Amino acid sequence: MDTTFAIRGRLAAIRTGWYAGAPAVSPHGRRIYAGGLVQHLTDHHETRPPPPSHEAGQAYLRAQLRDWRTVHASLAEWDAANGGALRRCLVAAGVALRDETDDGRERADFLVRQACLCLSTTTLAKLDAKVEKLARMPVGPWRIGGGLARI
Question: What's the pLDDT at 41?
Answer without folding.
Answer: 80
